[in-house]
UniProtKB/TrEMBL annotation:
Residues 49-85, 101-124 are annotated as: Disordered. L-serine binds at T229, A230, E231, R260, E283, N384, T386. It is found in: Cytoplasm. One of its GO terms (biological process) is selenocysteine biosynthetic process. It holds the Pfam family Seryl_tRNA_N. This is Serine--tRNA ligase. The gene is serS. GO terms for cellular component: cytoplasm.
Length: 432
């Protein structure tokens, strides 16, 4: 969340930021409520002071009538204070709801506008090339080579679930290890995170754990939710902690399953593995000082590019426009891989993203750092980035690496992990 003092001192700027990001938040109302709350708190403090004085004076009363009168006076003061406290609680609840709805501030270079205003800033090493033969999409390729079982997944768990089979399993495991190996060389600590998190952790990171707008699966009768990303479990790891500045940046990479309801996500663009209810992801996360966070965001983006260049896949990077930024993000880059089987003639599809959330999440989670020799503490900056979302990476690999004979080449970087260089062969096609 934003610093309350900054909001009250810059209400016009904060309201404008909400407007350009398409968020409905009444900043003026928040400022008014905050002022009312402070005034009422002063009154409560004064009533408490008066009630204490009256309480101390009871023992000095000359007679029983005076003693009872002072007790009555004290009782009325406490009742008045309690009534004001109820008003404060109501005002605070309304103000807090507005406060939590406010998005992060926005980087000056982020494009202004809706999704279409996002700006391409980078391309991968490999150019997009139209194949000289009719391409199949990943669903057709998966069926042809017995790689993905959507019918079985639907039978067991419902639409949006699936089984990976045969070489697709090897690809999933290979992608995890490939990404982890790259990140470990850059000083990331590898972790396997819980697949569940408490509601306060989700809210702190910026997700809505329950209610009509949630995309989260919740566990009935428990304050637990299936995580949509390891950003949640990695971000919550140091909630309520004070870190030492000399330990920053702390760089973690987490492997987790990700669960999303994906309500209302049906459509051709969501076909197959592109938008599913469960997938595996390797997530990057960092806790930094404010001075380190912008360089860390660029490093995360560079690492995502290194991973997909290493896979030999064409891609582009977008600087995401204000109207398409999530609430916690100060700036966000999306990496979109070319998917030849998507749309009529191929399309780019998002496969990773990375965001600088500055101190937005750390304020909600109360994660601070202390400078050596100083008594005070400051909020850390948090950053997240997808190293590889396995299901979407598999789409890009299957569709880009398919050959005229129907086989699929394994990217060279994955061959040591998979143990083979091709899925299927021309002889397999002849047998068919």
């Amino acid at each position: 969340m934003l610093d309350k003092r900054y909001i009250t001192e810059n209400p016009e700027l904060v309201q404008e930021n909400c407007n350009i990001r398409g968020v409905k938040a009444d900043v003026g109302r928040f400022v008014q409520l905050d002022s009312e709350r402070k005034t009422l708190m002063q009154q409560v403090e004064e009533l408490s002071r008066q009630a204490n004085e009256v309480s101390k004076s009871i023992g000095k009363a000359k007679d029983n009538d005076e003693r009872e009168a002072r007790k009555e006076e004290g009782r009325k003061l406490r009742e008045e204070k309690d009534e004001l406290q109820k008003q404060i609680d109501r005002i605070s609840a309304e103000a807090d709801a507005i406060h939590r709805a406010m998005p992060n501030l926005t980087h000056a270079d982020s494009p202004r506008g809706g999704e279409d205003a996002s700006r391409e800033i980078r391309r991968g090493d490999l150019e997009v090339r139209q194949p000289s033969f009719p391409v199949l999409d990943h669903v057709e390729l998966g069926e042809q080579h017995d790689l993905i079982d959507f019918e079985g997944g639907s039978h067991v768990a419902g639409q949006g679930f699936y089984y990976l089979r045969n070489e697709a399993v090897l690809l999933e495991l290979a992608l995890q290890r490939y990404a982890i190996d790259i990140l470990m060389k850059e000083g990331f600590t590898p972790t396997i995170t819980p697949d569940l998190a408490r509601g306060d952790v989700l809210q702190g990171v910026g997700f809505i754990p329950r209610g009509p707008e949630t995309q989260i699966y919740s566990i009935e009768n428990f304050d637990l939710n299936l995580v949509a990303t390891a950003e949640i479990t990695l971000g919550g790891l140091y909630a309520g902690k004070v870190l030492d500045e000399e330990d920053l940046p702390i760089k973690l990479c987490g492997i987790s399953h990700c669960y999303r309801t994906e309500a209302g996500a049906a459509g051709r663009a969501s076909r197959g593995l592109y938008r599913v209810h469960q997938f595996t992801k390797v997530e990057m996360f960092a806790f930094t000082t404010p001075e380190q966070s912008e360089d860390t965001l660029n490093m995360f983006c560079d690492l995502e590019c290194e991973i997909f260049n290493g896979l030999g896949l064409p891609f582009r990077v977008l600087d995401i426009a204000t109207g398409d930024l999530g609430g916690p993000a100060y700036r966000k880059f999306d990496l979109e891989a070319w998917m030849p089987g998507r749309g009529d003639h191929g399309e780019f599809g998002e496969v990773t993203s990375t965001s600088n959330c500055t101190d937005y999440q750390s304020r909600r989670l109360n994660i601070r750092y202390r400078k050596k020799g100083e008594k005070g503490t400051n909020f850390v900056h948090t950053l997240n980035g997808t190293a590889v979302a396995i299901s979407r990476a598999i789409i890009a690999i299957l569709e880009n690496c398919q050959q005229p004979d129907g086989s699929i080449l394994i990217p060279e970087a994955l061959r040591p992990y998979v143990g083979k260089d091709r899925i299927g062969s021309s002889s397999d096609e002849d047998d068919e």
